[in-house]
Amino acid sequence: MLVIMVAQNSPKLTIVRPRGSTLVAQTDAQADLPVDLPLAPKKHPSDTAAVAQQAMGKPSGRSEGRRFGFTKELLNRLPCPTNGQRAYYFDTKGSRGFGIAVTTTGRKNFILYRKVNGRPERVQIGPFPDLTIEQARRTAAELNGAIARGENPANTKREVRDEMTLRELFAQFGELYGQRKRTWPEMQRLFKKNLRCWHLRKISSIKKLDVIKLHARLGQKKVGLKKGRKRGPYAANRTIELLSSMFNWAATEAGWKGENPATRIKAFKEKKRERFLLPEEAEAFFRALDAEPNEDIRDYLYLSLFTGGRRSNVQAMRWPQINFNRVVWTIPRELPEHPAGLRGTGRGAISLCDYW
Length: 356
Prior knowledge:
The chain is of the alpha+beta class.
């Protein structure tokens, strides 16, 4: 400690100013009186702790050095840690727990470090300088508000990180549902061909606009052997139907809480495909049908042909609905989408009923 004592009768000391590395005292009686008091050299902080101390005017120390008011200049000067671990620094002007993490490669990320339900949680906010300090502070304030409401922002981040990719969803969808469907091979073909670019995407990252763009792109494709033959609209509609089925299954069976981005997508108009049995094909068709080893399938097809009934109606046919004397089959009113009515069965159909 340096003490300068001035006698009572001495001239009054009025000005003290640095000159070079020597303090110069001026008095009323004498100016430029040199006093050999060497100044301490100006400290140039070589580590982050010193930067913080200089910014806050606090003494050295690990805890004090890692807490300071964030500015762009100070954050840019934060050095890379040399101990192989991330270094964490916290803002004294922002929300509680708001800070920044610095990696050994120099990457800086804003974070929020809080205890939630007694457990420490570290939530990533975003990279610096892509996010400004003010933007990160606002996000930290919103996260603190969520914590105050009893939520855990870290769980939301964790769910996004751990959630399924579209390929993983399709695998579970197929194993627990799709493989039981007769259209499963077609589902596999559509998924492999038309959804290849989304196989590794997290399902929450697929938005409705993405699906609309995919649908439009697939609808413009022209494929087929004949020039100008356009099958894109059919494949596009079937692909969106598959995607919608997958998300519906994930919501109802897999516990996924997100929205289905493939719902209410306006389908392309499709021309109904009609195929009639030509006269020259009838003989070969009935010959193949007679050779069908499964009698139930063979008789069902014959009954459908003779009655002209819809598949669901024929499958729901019961004995009390058939009047053998009048050779009439009465379709019940309660069958969906089919009003009550009479349908002549024909003698061929009666012969089948007699056979059963």
